[in-house]
Structure formats: C-alpha cells, structure tokens
Amino acid sequence: MSVPFLQVEKLRKEYTRGLINKQVTFSLEADFTIEEPAIVGMMGPNGSGKTTLFELITGSNLPSSGKVKVMGQNIHDVRYDERDRLAIHYHQSYQVRSFRRTRPNFMMQAAGSDYPMLHLFDEPQFNTQDGYIGFMLDFFRKLRDEGRLVFVCVHPNEPFHLEIMREVCERYIFVRDGALTLENDFDRLVQMDAVRAYLGRLVDAA
Hints:
- The chain is an alpha/beta fold.
- It has one domain: Rossmann fold (3-Layer(aba) Sandwich), CATH 3.40.50.
- Helix content is 22%, strand content 31%.
- The N and C termini lie far apart (38 Å).
- The relative contact order is 0.18.
C-alpha cells in the first residue's frame, strides 16, 4: 500500500496575545489527505491563513497541535537542513521564516528524498507578456508528471488568474478565517457563497 503524499492530521495553529490572560487572536485548523501527485489550487482573503498553512506543511512554523506528514514522515521530526528535500515553499517576497530549533539535528530524521516532493507556490507573479504564463503552467504540469505534488496559491484580482486555476488545477482549497473548504470541481467551488463574496466582480468571469 502506497504512502499518501501529504497527510495534514488535526492540525491547529494558534496565535495569542497577553502573557497571563492569553487571548487567541487567530487560529487555523486543517485536516485533509492528498494521496497522489496533483496540482492543487488555493485561494482566500488576505490574512486567512494560506501562508501559515504553507509554513506548517514545510516545517518552518510549529503547530499548536496535530502533525503534517510528507511521504509518511512527520515534517517536524526531519532535520532542519533537509526539510526542503521533502517540501519547499516559494514565496513571492522570497522571505522564508527561520526554523525554530527545538532539537539538535543529530536527534532528528534524515529526509527520505533528495529532491522536493511537494512544491508550494505562494502567490507567484504571472507575467502576461511573452508566453510566461504558458511556461509556468507547463512547469507545474512537468512537476506533477514527475510524481510531485504542487500547490499554487493565487489571490485573484484579474480574470486570467481564475482561468489559470480552472485550466491547470485538479482540486482546490479555499481558506477563510482559518478554516479550509476542499473541492474537486472548479465550477462548484466558485458557486459557494463565501467564494462568491470573496471574488466579487470576478464571479462573472469565473
């Protein structure tokens, strides 16, 4: 029996304020499994938890509870210097959160891969000139065809962003206020009330 590519198990991340009487200012919850290579589209309002989810999947952010398994390995048990051999996060600002080191590397597992199995693209910039979009979509498909799992997080502000998601993605995740909605059909996704409210004028284009 093959091991699922990604298992997000009862994952929760809380941010709090206050030293004595702590108050939760934001929380993210996720619980899902992706069994095999795919291209997953993700979208949601700013501040909804999309980047936090990517950081938890790549092990650069510690969960409050739950776990993330990449190819059967708990990403937070893998050596800090080898986690990007399992999952790598490409952020548009190229700012990567530093690992919070809770254990020395020698006490942790080696990554069971030499090349990332998960590629997470966080709001990549799609230049509409000179065939760049086609190049990027071909690149996503190439990774999937090589047996990788690809996440493409988009914050749509133009109709072509939705066209990209419809064309290249095979399943979808909508994130709002720290809660995830998973859908395998783009048309059903964009008919959800929360998604329609988020997309606004772009709903007609979708």
